[in-house]
Amino acid sequence: MGKVEKLENFFLPKGTIGFILYKLFWGVYRLPNNLLSNRQLINKTYKKVFGHTPNLDHPSTLNEKIQWLKLNGFKSFHTICCDKYLMRNYVMEKIGPEAEDHLIPLLYETTNWRDISLDTLPNEPFVIKPTHTSGDYQIVRDKSTIDIKLLRGKCRYWLHRNFYRDSRELQYKDSPRRLIAEKLLQTADGYIPNDYKLHYFNGELQFIYCSVARETRNYRKIYSPDWKPLPFIWVPKFKLQSQSGGDDIPAPASFNLMKKYASIIAKDFDYVRVDFYDVDGKLYFGEITLFHGSGYDVFSPEEYDLIYGNKLKLTGLDK
To answer: pTM higher than 0.90, yes or no?
Structure first.
């Protein structure tokens, strides 16, 4: 159990007092960062990861260019396509009515954490998460086994969380705060399916980043657009060892459809990541991500950061 999970388990089941103390803890912990400008915080975080500050005026590596986009690339529609609820309509507008069959079934939604109870939650396996943050979720296979006080506490905190302040990603600044429960996707053998993340530069597919065996080995593989293994990974620094290696996997049955849909969405972006799941041959949209790892994941070997940085052209900067 990680430190954050231990804090959640200690404070959040304790009602209002626990919520206030938990929120106060994070407020104090994040206060030094909250006092920094977006550019200052990016410089600080980047240096902590890479050992030097990024060149934000003339970026060259892919991670530097992602930081540049965070500061300079925002467009109003980004708020919609990165909202886990509003994104559903965005995808249908771009793809057409056929996309509805590829959206993960929505089982429940609310804007009030007080609505969360054993009576209101779905009676089938689901994932509950806020729509305006990244990385916050809880998998529930059987709601009769969960600590409902803890879950309500998490939902309360999620709805109060200012993810823009934490991440400085502008698409979250004015995002509506909502909770959704989606059907838990599972393969025929009961596991969460692999996650296929298609990375596009200037409308062209560059590579497919695969999160494999997420409930067991949990490793990463990266493939070319024609599904040839590529000799690098791009992960958080502290996960370089644990997420490296692992067996290669075949292309998913719905790979061509993934590329078809993702290429339509990618037309409006300099850089975008479009995520999918393949459940025994059935395609589902995951999410649209503007900044993989918020620009702080490391390449191994590190030269691929520059190799792929040279491939990405930034509107308003590159000529």
So the answer is: yes
